[in-house]
Amino acid sequence: LKTPVKEKFRFDSFKLTLQDSRITGNIEYDAGRKRPLISTSLKSDRFDLSALLRSDAKADQPKADMKDRPTDKGFSFPKWPAPPAFIVDSDIRIQASAGVLMLPRFVINELTSAIDCSGRDFTITANSLSVSGIEAGQQIPYVSDLEGIEFLATGAVTGDSLTVDTFKLHAGSNEVLVADLEGSIADVANQQGIDFRFMLRGQDSAYLWKFLEQDITVEGPFSISGRIFDPRERNYDFSELSLVIGDSDLSGQLKIDLTGQRPRVEGRLSANHLDLRPYLKTTAEGNLPETPPAVTTTGRSKKVFSSELFDLSALETGDLNFNFEAGTLMLPRWSAQA
């Protein structure tokens, strides 16, 4: 601990160990300003955030000095430690880097980040060299060559209210898989004023199924995009939806209303060609073969429609108003046109 000038304190050779993760750097506190300044420069060769999240989930009792931020309908934000007053009343500048940042499903390599809070305004930036996947503790080759992450967020904090004016996230590479998320949130605590555009695309659908951990085989490029916003409280619109996977396509809009006793979903979707056979497994062994139904000795085909009952229990939880049009719709046992 050093005091280079009056009312300025500097912690050099700072070291913090959390389980298998270690952080080093320096911290400086300048109390001689109208608003005190906290500035840090931190570095970690390997920081395992996934291990810390797992240990926190195992905690039986809430930690001391924690508070809830409830919203209506029983939803509550995670419990976060209440920051000391001297931090709330200070400006903050943080520079942090990690050679490897371990997340629950991904590894971010060569990450650099910065946080600048001045008064009520804040800016957060982050960049990384590459992203790898994790499966059973191993890197997954199908995402090991993805390019890194570019992140930017700006906004303001007023009391318990947090406003995000700018949110931009770009990850991946055009050659394999790329994701973009951009938008803003007027009130994060109450989840109001949401307006985001999203896009996910790639040259090989196999990457998508591995990312979603689904045992599905559909070849060809894929693209998913759309916009989500809330025109009114507890109303969410998904507009400009576009989904292309292989030879299938789907587009339209969805509206979700959570203000009533039962959720209400309205939608209008259309497709030129939609093949659902790879996604609908009707037997324990997997998809039905694509060959036509066998013909019996009487010349009559086997059943076109399955005798198994559809599970409609999900319809009891909400109201649904849906319109769907397709040039060609293909299902395991039958197909339809127009």
SSE arrangement:
Blueprint: E1 8-18, E2 21-30, E3 37-48, H1 49-57, E4 66-67, E5 80-81, H2 85-88, E6 91-102, E7 106-118, E8 121-127, E9 130-135, E10 138-140, E11 146-147, E12 149-158, E13 161-172, E14 177-187, E15 192-202, H3 205-212, E16 222-229, E17 235-245, E18 248-257, E19 264-275, E20 319-330, E21 335-337
Parallel strand pairs: 3-6, 19-20
Antiparallel strand pairs: 1-2, 2-3, 4-5, 6-7, 7-8, 7-9, 8-12, 9-10, 9-11, 12-13, 13-14, 14-15, 15-16, 16-17, 17-18, 18-19, 20-21
Give your account of this protein's structure:
By secondary structure, the chain is mainly beta. 6% of the residues lie in helices and 53% in strands. The protein has three helices and 21 strands. The chain has helices at residues 49-57, 85-88, 205-212, and strands spanning 8-18, 21-30, 37-48, 66-67, 80-81, 91-102, 106-118, 121-127, 130-135, 138-140, 146-147, 149-158, 161-172, 177-187, 192-202, 222-229, 235-245, 248-257, 264-275, 319-330, 335-337. The protein has a 19-stranded mixed beta sheet that branches. Strands 4-5 form a two-stranded antiparallel ribbon. A hairpin with a 4-residue loop joins strand 13 and strand 14. The chain is elongated, with a radius of gyration of 26 Å. The N and C termini lie far apart (76 Å). The model is unreliable at 63-80, 136-142 and 283-292 (pLDDT under 50).
